[in-house]
Give the backbone structure.
Amino acid sequence: MLRNCCFAGLLALGLMACAPVTTERPGAAPGPALAIPAGAKQYRIVPEQSELRVLVYREGALASLGHNHVISSHALSGVVGLTETMAGSTLYLNLPVDSLEVDRPELRDAEGDDFPGHLDASAVDGTRANMLGEKLLNAARYPMIEIHSRSIGGNLPDLTVRAGITVRDQVALVDIPVRISVDDDRLVAEGAFDLSHSQLGLEPFSVMLGALAVRDVMHVKFHIVGRAEKADGPSLLRDSAVVE
């Protein structure tokens, strides 16, 4: 009973749990506008065929009293612009924060031994509410996570995308390995990489001097499908301030 009341509840409050350690600057001036290069082949992301999955792990001496979590979304949107040379290509993705789901049973099953069992629905709902609340991701004020390429290197099929990931108006620069298959009608991009709370300017949840905590490093997996479309002019997006 003590275990359920104290530790499961605490971990529910701390899923993806983070208090921002960077200063909020909602009034900061936007960065330079970004656009798909002229002449690039454009592929519009198909949300229902694309998936983002984030694996969040517990740690600490009392880690066995908590759970690892699978965060997921099928709501990625955006566009990929491919040029003849990969260095000129671009990638813009948007993810609605309120599209994030917590611990879908089939995804816990798919992720194996680190994610045993199906969690109670009320606990999952409470965890998600706290994750989206103003003390954490603050979906009401910052409704979108943005991923914009700064540079793309390598040769098909294996590329490295240096991207700015914007969370709560703060941008972290991350190198993302991507494997791409592409033809005239369809693009598929897949990959996985580690991303830390600290890279995003966030502090992982921790109680009892770290005896029960969320691990700083998360594991991100993605499968993105794009459908070719005719370019109809530049797609303008803006950057925010970069977390140094």
